[in-house]
Design goal:
The complex is a heterodimer of chains A (about 400) and B (about 90).
Chain A: H1 2-10, E1 12-18, H2 22-31, E2 36-41, E3 45-51, H3 58-65, E4 68-75, H4 77-81, H5 88-104, E5 110-112, H6 118-130, H7 144-154, E6 158-166, E7 169-176, E8 190-194, E9 198-207, E10 209-210, E11 217-218, E12 223-226, E13 228-230, E14 236-238, E15 242-258, E16 260-278, E17 281-284, E18 295-306, E19 309-329, H8 332-348, E20 354-364, E21 368-380, E22 382-386
Chain B: H1 2-24, E1 30-34, E2 38-42, E3 46-50, E4 54-59, E5 62-77, E6 80-92
Antiparallel strand pairs in B: 1-2, 2-6, 3-4, 4-5, 5-6
The chains are: A alpha+beta (about 400), B alpha+beta (about 90).
Chain lengths: ~400, ~90
């Protein structure tokens, strides 16, 4: 297969030879390094194949053995391209094509960013652009390690960044900080104290000395389970106190909503703006200036692809929805509903609780409505606290 | 008894090594036959006779005769030749 391909690239010819001493001709050809193949015996001679530029090596053998050699056929790439040798346009086009491919391969075509939340994505793309990471940059002018350092230094929410260049594709990878709640190690002694005041309804200790009982009233900071345990022999052991203390706690949330609401509303006017991005250069497909006013913009970018490979050309369609700040009056019912929704959202943020009673109060005034919600919940109020030794 | 057998084995190994060494240095010929359809001869010095039914190749002091039908030289390089066809016999002369 490899030989066949090389013979095609170099070009090969089949020749016929007629003479008195074919064996001697073959031997002389072999010794002059004109490697022959597919040697077929004919009635009064033979035919064989040879690499095109070695055909002239056969002249010596032919003269020496008085053999007549004649070209029969030509095969391979040089003979395919031969008719085009006087076509300057074809040659120039081919050279231009090769140069274009070579030149284009020296530039960054595509920049790939990792999937992150919207806020970090905007920050990442902005910092990357300022650092010079965008399509159209010369590949040799980019230093992946230096760019990684720039990203790490300028984006606060990441622990690690990497910039890798694969051919004409630049890939940015980052690792975000993972925030873990600060927990005390199980090997470290600690107490459990009340995070919120309330009436104890259930005590479920796992380790440590229980300081409270069902029905006790506690305030924030009171000791619930102690990590200092006295045994029967009078010695003191320090342990990591564990367990859950459920208490009934009371909350009051208040929200006031004004009847007069000012918010941006759409006017119904939508403007579509189309662009083409070529190597990072935005080419507008519209005439005139961008419209003035307040708009909510929605941008859709569709890269041009060949199979699964993206090209450095994208089609961008922006949808500009005109908005205007308007003041409108909402009904009391709507105001109460908005206030209740806000309070419900705050209750959800409390986490794992069980609501045992709830009382909603609505106070109406001339301009606004105030909703007050008093509610009692059952929740685990224990929190770990390190034992400090003076 | 054992010592005689060991001596014979030693001589046999040395003899094979000498042949291999000669073959590797190109002083001797090396022939491979594949399924009676292809013969590869290393150490070939030239073709002495070439026809559809018989090809005689010089391998130094001796010559190798390949008999068969539709014999063709598929490849020929310096010191190596590959012959294909329906091979009926390979003999030294």
């Amino acid at each position: 297969m490899k030989n066949t391909f090389l013979r095609f690239i170099c070009g090969n010819v089949r020749f016929s030879a007629q003479g008195m001493f074919p064996e001697r001709f073959i031997n002389l050809a072999m010794h002059s390094n004109a490697s022959l193949w597919d040697i077929r015996r004919d009635n009064d001679g033979f035919s064989a194949c040879v690499i095109a530029n070695r055909y002239k090596l056969l002249r010596y053998a032919a003269a020496k053995t008085k053999t007549r050699i004649k070209l029969v056929s030509k095969h391979g790439l040089p003979f395919i391209l031969l008719p085009y040798r006087h076509r300057a346009g074809f040659v120039l086009g081919f050279i231009f094509f090769c140069l274009t491919i070579w030149t284009m391969s020296n530039f960054i075509w595509i920049v790939e960013f990792p999937e992150t939340d919207d806020e970090l994505q905007i920050k990442l793309q902005s910092v990357a652009y300022e650092a010079g990471i965008h399509p159209g940059r010369l590949r040799s002018s980019l230093d992946g390690e230096a760019l990684s350092n720039v990203l790490e230094a300028n984006i606060g929410d990441i622990s690690w960044a990497s910039v890798n260049i694969f051919g004409s594709r630049l890939s940015v990878d980052i690792r975000e900080y993972e925030s873990f709640p600060k927990k005390i190690s199980l090997n470290e002694p600690c107490n459990l104290v009340a995070a919120k005041g309330g009436v104890i309804t259930d005590v479920n200790p796992k380790s440590g000395f229980v300081e409270v009982k069902k029905g006790d009233v506690v305030v924030p900071g009171d000791l619930l389970i102690s990590g200092v345990v006295d045994d029967a022999m009078g010695s003191v052991t320090l342990v990591h106190a564990m367990g859950s203390i459920t208490a009934r706690t009371d909350y009051r949330f208040t929200e006031t909503i004004s009847f007069e609401q000012t918010e941006p509303l759409t006017t119904g006017r939508i403007i579509k703006i189309r662009r083409i991005i070529f190597f990072g250069l935005e080419i507008p497909l519209y005439l005139g200036k961008e419209p003035d006013g307040e708009f909510i913009k929605t941008r859709t970018q569709t890269p041009v692809k060949i199979g699964s490979h993206k090209l450095p050309v994208s089609y961008v369609e922006e949808s500009w929805v005109e908005t205007a700040v308007m003041t409108h009056i909402i009904s009391e019912r709507d105001a109460v509903s908005r206030a209740t929704d806000l309070i419900d959202k705050r209750i959800e943020e409390l986490g794992d609780i069980e609501i045992i009673s709830r009382n909603d109060k609505i106070n109406r005034s001339k301009n606004a409505v105030t909703v007050t919600v008093d509610f009692s919940v059952l929740q685990d109020i224990a929190k770990e606290e390190i034992i400090l030794f003076d | 008894m054992n010592s005689i057998r060991n001596e014979k084995e030693k001589q046999s190994i040395l003899s094979r090594m000498r042949l291999l060494s000669l073959s590797l240095r190109g002083h001797d010929s090396h022939i491979e036959i594949n399924s009676g359809r292809e013969v590869l001869i290393e150490g070939c010095r030239g073709i002495l006779e070439y026809s559809d039914t018989k090809i005689q190749v010089s391998v130094g002091r001796q010559s190798v005769i390949i008999n068969g039908n539709e014999l063709t030289v598929r490849n020929m390089f310096t010191h190596m030749i590959v012959i294909i066809g329906h091979i009926s016999s390979v003999e030294y002369s």
